[in-house]
Amino acid sequence: MRGDHYHFTPGNRVELLETGSEYFPALCRAIDAARLEVHLESYIFEDDETGHRVADALSRAARRGVKVHVLVDGFGASRFPRTLAPGLIGAGVEVRVFRPHISPFTLRRHRLRRLHRKVVIVDGALAFVGGINIIDDIPNPGQTPPRYDYAVAVCGPMVGDVLHSCRRLWALVNWASLRRRQRMPVPVLADIRPVGDMEARYVVRDNIRHRRDIEEAYLEAIASAREEIILANAYFLPGLRFRHAVLAAAARGVKVTLLLQGRVEYLLLHFATRALYGHFLASGVRIFEYHRSFLHAKVAVVDGRWATVGSSNIDPFSLLLAREANVVVRDAAFAGRLRASLRRAMETGARELKPEDWEHRPWHRRAFTWLAYGLVRLMIGLAGQGGRN
User: Fold this and answer.
1) Active-site residue flag, 136
2) CATH code given to domain 9-176
């Protein structure tokens, strides 16, 4: 890739983890091996088998003297304070809730500013970043395969940025909670010694200094693409800049492929997303809808060298409102593994939409699609976002 304005850190080792079947065992092993400190941030921390499995590992760590900090979102993990939190607190875990007070009668912008990132860092040396929540991977055992999602495990200099970000957010939540303005214990130093040969970058989105960092990382990679873009996203409702970048890439001969949600999980977003399909298909962009299970992935590969894995969807709620975290990797071997995984998903679990089939949809489906799109735009406007976004 050329033209990268943000800094890549060399000397990292980044391991791709596909679905919870790879992620949760690796996470629990790391927590069980922790000796000093664990930070965990998650949008969802569910009271189910997986939630208890992770909570038990965190409790064991706290009981043997590890400093354990858990931060969850007040909306995504709304039941957490009365289900799993008491047991964790009893074991010595420090628990915080991001924006716990939510009025159901408002669409004000702050209500939609959620903690959507999924980050864990152990002993300042091993970080997990991705899109996988603490929740059972298989919503309907025996009926639906595991959610299709990714995370990465990272060692090396980039871990220092992850640790700094986690501590900064923890301190911010402590400061905002009038009853819990506690000072952090003596911090564990990040282990930033080179351990591999991968260039990586930790990119966050917040509402202060990093409002567009994730979007800009995508846009820069798309603008630099010369051969191929594969983008997999659960909720794909990009703004004008992003749409124009994708269409410009297709116009200059780049093979652009979108792997998107095929099953209906959230009705309004599902149909609003489909309002944009016609424009992309007419411009030569290939669209695959994943039906084998629920697609929750938020990843991309560009030119077989640039790749990103993280929590950020390509929609207004992730790119304009939520706190998100992605890892960007510039390494041919890593990008190749992710590309091969996405290709398998398209071959075994997705169906390609053809432009001619899309043009012959029933009129009532077209009408509902544009109605959903209009409602989502209205919600964005009510939340205080608008214009070219």
Assistant:
1) no
2) 3.30.870.10
